[in-house]
Design goal:
The complex is a heterodimer of chains A (about 575) and B (about 500). With about 575 residues, chain A is α+β, with helices and mostly antiparallel strands. Chain A contains 8 helices and 36 strands. In chain A, the strands form 9 sheets. Chain A has a 4-stranded antiparallel β-sheet with strand order 1-28-27-26. A 4-stranded antiparallel β-sheet of chain A has the order 2-3-4-5, with no helix packed on it. A 4-stranded antiparallel β-sheet of chain A has the order 6-7-8-9, with no helix packed on it. The longest helix of chain A has 26 residues. Chain B is mainly α and about 500 residues long. Among the domains of chain B are: about 130 residues, Serine Threonine Protein Phosphatase 5, Tetratricopeptide repeat; about 50 residues, no CATH class. Chain B has 26 helices and no strands. In chain B, helix 16 runs antiparallel to helix 17. Chain B is elongated, with a radius of gyration of 27 Å. The chains are: A alpha+beta (about 575), B mainly alpha (about 500). At the A-B interface, helix 7, helix 8, strand 29 and strand 36 of A face helix 5, helix 6, helix 17, helix 19 and helix 20 of B. Chain A: This is Bardet-Biedl syndrome 1 protein. Chain A: It comes from Melipona quadrifasciata. Chain A: GO terms for molecular function: patched binding; smoothened binding.
């Protein structure tokens, strides 16, 4: 085995189903889902890990990196950030090196033996006839009338919307009117084109189940098309128009036979295409999809951004949905044909990688950091390897043990669904029953005593309220709240007062704060209150110094200049200070 | 004759008179001839201000914030007092005190200390409560004891510690022990006391367990917790006493190792079966671990052993009250009343129990008595409870007035602000309600109610982002709050909506 060391001591704990092969936290690899693949690029039967590295924010140079085990062997610079990498074979049954396809911008770069081999450009989109007409007319005219051109294009923009206008027009309209002349002069005779952009890339087997077998490239474009390319000539075999941009594919079967491509759109639409039949829309997901993976029984699992995992049957019927804790970052299917299972690994933020068998959670892989992209397949000589790239740029490789058994958990996870949860409700005591008997026999007396008491209490509360709160507090035209906090260790304290105007208008202007103190010096003792806006707490800070060694008390009075009674009063206690804190 | 009189007075507990006679005797004779009198005076002065310092323990701000004996800063739930965890949550959620601890049956040392994590919260919350919390544990005692010694000795201190020949007295066991107690309790000079204890224990070749305990006490009050633990353990090997066991438990509680403390309690119970003091410690530790059922079990054993144990009865009472059995709680509180406890808190609790047990004829009279007995500290609580009764009766105006009275008596009463906010929503004053919720959340961010309320209000108004932030705070203080979860789900649907 090359480069991959199965370290039994670290990951080989009895309970784990995975062997720790590699953990390289400083790989500085930044990848998103769909940008990882494992393929035999050199033809020596040894699969390498190929990943599209987006680079960090400041070093904005996307690269394709090829790893052998934990060591990087080659690196290829890219012009634009790739939207995905896939590997495939061009011939049936010939053990040769596989071809790497990288989707970038509006083209697909094909590498053979890790050398540039071919560049496939997406066909241009037809420009709207009216726009073409306008630019054509400008090209014919000798005299350039920029104002008319701008008016016409502006009208067109309003009519069609920016999505259907060519970049040239948009650029023209966004320019400074003085610069438009030179721009129009420069471009008016050049034919108007509108280039397409690649949104997703995938592969589907062409006509053979043997390994290796030739596969067709599946390309999704921003314009809403799906293109199937012939593996030898790189010409379009089939073309499907969707009207909505696809973002992810899941391909099953043989394209020339009964193969199907499941498509998830950016707006959450999910549909399926077959060769020769138009797209069949299944349904619209409640939120954008993260990833889509095929399961063994022709079913499909889709993870979506609101944290759910949805299973669909091959007919597009929603079978189950599971809530996954934490945000989903990626998901990938783990086919284990030896035990007849097709598991699904879902990478979550904060909860590790959770492995599901259908809707049952069977295992959790703990990784140091959240995993942003992963790929399961053959790496080196090892068939069941999972490569993971973490958010922090680390690379981790784990190997699924041959002895791994996922059936035990399956049985357990079925159980708790059946029994209903029991509530702990304390029983009513005999005492309670006796009391109810008393209540029944003396209902009249109890009621009248309570009502009398309540009246008394009401009176008492009303008296207290009149005593302590005066008319302006609470019920006045501009109610205020005041809360005071003491900060500090003493003997120097800080009193922080928060004044809030809880009416919907501005407060009165002539308010001020006075402190009435015991054992304390407060500075300043009197302070004007600024105009208080509605609902925003305004902090006011006072400094207080204890005079003696016993605790002090400060009464803070909020007063109005024309009134004798304070608007609000609150008191704080300053705790006794430490005798001396030795330093 | 004089000496006999002094001894007699000492035995009668009239320490002050005894000390005066001793002073006179000492004036007449030089010190080395009347060592007996000297020792007697020391004893008399010490016993005047002798305190049971096992109980008088309050963790100060400096200890809770700056000392770091804890082994793990993120302990597993249920293994630490700072993170009691949700492993044992009963079927109810107790309200929290001003510093954020769940309410206990009685106010006892360390129920005031906050669980807060941030420095500002630690400095803010407890010190603005009506009873200010000391900064360090040693200061609260030393201030009190220091003033005591100053008052009793107008003509200068009885013993000049700086001039004391410690090594000489350390070699005389019959003098060393009273002298130690005098220095420790009367003068409260831990460093001299420690010096004496170290030399004395060397003299007796580390065989006297008493000196080991004293060493441990000194280390403990100096903050050298691990050394204290060693001394107490070594003392326990020599002789098993309840005092030392209790002190060792305290050491573990201070070290934030409740499970070890419980283990120590169980070992202690093997020697002193059903000892009320040790059982009380166990009840308290389980209480602070939020394991109410175990706590209840131990308090019940205590109540069987000592039928007039106030703490046990009050704790059982509060458990029944929050366990939806107010009629049982009423029984326990009535028992406290029969025992002669007569204060505002008890009448307040009796009133609440009567109200929730539907014994309406006693409710009002209990609250009236509570109000008439109340002090500044308890006033706010009583008004808050009265506001609940007003709400249940349906008198919103009265409830609002009561809540305002609660705020007047304690302007940091977060729950009162919260409830005022709810009433303001009913009245249609959205701005006022929002301000009240914010005030409540600012004062006590360990309460989930204000966070949830402001989240709900923001949600209704349409401010989804604010609502989301507030509901997350609510869930972080109370992760299982069903309403918050529902609200969060609704919000998430909005945010993921396409």
């Amino acid at each position: 085995m090359h480069g991959l060391r199965a370290d039994h001591n670290i990951g080989g704990l009895g309970t784990s189903r995975w062997l720790e092969a590699l953990w390289e936290p400083a790989a500085r690899l930044y990848t998103l889902p769909n940008a990882l693949d494992m393929l035999d690029v050199s033809g020596d039967g040894d699969a390498r890990l190929v990943c599209a590295d987006l680079g960090t924010l400041n070093v904005n140079s996307p690269k394709i990196r090829v790893y052998k085990g934990g060591d990087q062997i080659t690196e290829h610079n890219m012009v634009d950030p790739p939207c995905g990498v896939v590997g495939f074979y061009t011939e049936n049954g010939e053990p040769q090196s596989s071809v790497l396809a990288v989707g970038v911008g509006s083209s697909v770069y094909i590498f053979k033996n890790m050398r540039p081999y071919f560049k496939y450009c997406l066909p241009h989109i037809d420009v709207h006839p009216k726009e073409r007409e306008i630019w054509h007319k400008v090209g014919l005219d000798e005299e350039l009338n920029v104002l008319t051109l701008a008016d016409e294009l502006d009208l067109l923009l309003k009519e069609l919307g920016a999505g259907f206008i060519s970049p040239r027009t948009l650029k023209f309209l966004s320019m400074d009117p003085n610069l438009r002349v030179s721009f129009a002069e420069q471009y008016k005779r050049i034919p108007l084109i509108k280039s397409n952009a690649l949104t997703a890339i995938s592969v589907i087997r062409r006509d053979s189940w043997n390994d290796p077998a030739s596969s067709c490239l599946v390309l999704g474009t921003e314009f809403g098309e799906v293109l199937i390319l012939d593996p030898r000539t790189f010409s379009v075999m089939d073309k499907h128009l969707l009207q909505w941009p696809p973002v992810a594919f899941a391909c099953t079967g043989l394209w020339t036979g009964d193969g199907r491509i499941l498509i998830v759109g950016r707006d959450g639409k999910i549909g399926v295409i077959k060769r020769g039949s138009p797209v069949k829309l299944w349904e619209k997901l409640p939120s954008p999809a993260v990833a889509v993976s095929p399961l063994n029984n022709e079913g499909i699992a889709v993870t979506i951004m609101d944290g759910t995992l949805i299973g669909f049957s091959s007919k597009g019927i929603k079978l189950w949905h599971v809530r996954v804790p934490g945000a989903i970052l990626d998901s990938v299917s783990l086919p284990v044909p030896q035990i007849g299972l097709s598991l699904l690994a879902v990478s979550t933020a904060g909860y590790g990688i959770r492995v599901y068998d259908g809707k049952h959670h069977v295992d959790t892989l703990k990784i140091m950091e959240p995993v942003s992209a992963m790929k399961y397949g053959r790496m080196g000589q090892e068939e069941r390897t999972m490569a993971m790239v973490t958010v922090g740029g680390g690379l981790s490789v784990k190997i699924l043990k041959r002895t791994a058994d996922f059936s035990i958990h399956n049985a357990i996870s079925n159980l708790p669904l059946n029994d209903g949860s029991k509530f702990l409700v304390p029983k009513k005591t005999r005492l309670f029953v006796e009391q109810t008997i008393r209540e029944r026999s003396e209902a009249k007396k109890i009621h009248s005593t309570f009502q009398q008491g309540l009246l008394r209490l009401r009176l008492m509360v009303a008296k207290k309220v009149v005593e302590t709160l005066n008319d302006s507090q609470g019920a006045g035209p501009h109610p205020l709240t005041m809360e005071a906090t003491v900060l500090g260790l003493g003997p120097n304290y800080q009193i922080r007062i928060l004044l809030t105007n809880i009416s919907d208008e501005l407060s009165d202007t002539d308010l001020y704060i006075v402190c009435r103190t015991e054992n304390t010096n407060v500075k300043p003792r009197v302070m004007d209150v600024p105009l208080l806006p509605s609902g925003i707490p305004i902090p006011i800070v006072l400094n207080a110094i204890l005079k003696g060694r016993i605790s002090g008390r400060v009464e803070i009075l909020l007063c109005k200049k024309s009134k004798t009674k304070p608007v609000a009063v609150t008191a704080v206690v300053l705790p006794a200070a430490e005798e001396d804190i030795e330093t | 004759m004089e000496l006999f009189k002094a001894l007699n007075l000492f035995n009668q507990g009239k320490y002050e008179d005894c000390a005066t006679i001793c002073t006179n005797l000492l004036k007449k004779n030089p010190l080395n001839q009347v060592q007996t009198v000297w020792v007697l005076k020391m004893r008399a002065l010490t016993l005047q201000i002798y305190v049971d310092d096992i109980e008088g323990e309050e963790e100060g701000i400096a200890e809770s914030l700056l000392d770091n004996y804890t082994i793990s800063s993120m302990p597993r739930p249920g293994t630490s007092l700072k993170n009691p965890g949700t492993s044992f949550t009963g079927q109810y959620l107790r309200p929290k005190t001003q510093s954020g601890r769940p309410l206990t049956g009685v106010v006892r040392p360390a129920t005031q200390s906050a669980m807060s994590q941030s420095i500002e919260q630690t400095l803010k919350t407890p010190r603005t409560a009506m009873t200010a919390r000391p900064i360090t544990a040693s200061s609260s005692r030393s201030v009190r004891l220091g003033t005591a010694s100053m008052l009793t000795e107008p003509g200068g201190p009885f013993i000049q510690l700086s001039r004391l020949n410690i090594s000489k007295y350390a070699s005389q066991p019959c003098i060393a022990k009273p002298l130690f107690e005098y220095i420790y309790y009367h003068e409260h000079d831990v460093r001299y006391a420690l010096d004496l204890a170290v030399q004395a224990t060397q003299v007796c070749q580390y065989k006297d367990w008493w000196w080991k305990v004293q060493l441990g006490k000194c280390y403990y009050s100096l903050g050298l917790i691990r050394d204290a633990e060693q001394q107490f353990k070594s003392a326990l090997k020599d002789s098993k006493t309840i005092e030392v066991i209790l002190r060792l438990i305290r050491v573990y509680v201070r070290l934030d190792q409740p499970l070890t403390a419980l283990e120590t309690c169980k070992k202690g119970l093997e020697y002193f079966s059903n000892d009320v003091n040790i059982l009380t410690e166990m009840g308290r530790i389980f209480d602070s671990l939020n394991n109410m059922s175990m706590s209840l079990k131990y308090y019940k054993i205590i109540a069987q052993e000592d039928a007039s144990h106030t703490e046990a009865i009050a704790s059982i009472g509060i458990h029944h009250f929050y366990n939806d059995q107010p009629e049982l709680a009423l029984r326990y509180y009535r028992r406290l009343l029969q025992m002669g406890v007569y204060n505002a808190e008890l009448f307040n609790n009796l009133g609440l129990c009567c109200f929730y047990a539907q014994q309406y004829d006693h409710v009002i009279s209990c609250f009236e008595r509570a109000i008439s007995l109340s002090t500044d500290e308890t006033m706010a609580d009583i008004w808050y409870n009265v506001s609940h009764i007003a709400l249940t009766v349906g008198d919103i105006t009265m409830a609002e007035e009561c809540l305002k009275l609660a705020i007047v008596s304690d302007n940091r009463y977060a729950l009162a602000y919260n409830n005022l906010g709810v009433i303001q929503i009913r009245n249609g004053n959205i701005t006022a309600a929002r301000t009240y919720f914010h005030a409540a959340a600012n004062i006590a961010n360990f309460l989930y109610e204000p966070h949830f309320n402001s989240a709900y209000l923001a949600y209704k108004v349409g401010d989804l982002q604010t609502s989301y932030i507030a509901v997350q705070k609510s869930l972080s203080t109370y992760p299982n709050h069903a309403d918050s979860k529902t609200l969060l789900n609704k919000l998430e649907r909005y945010f993921t909506y396409m």
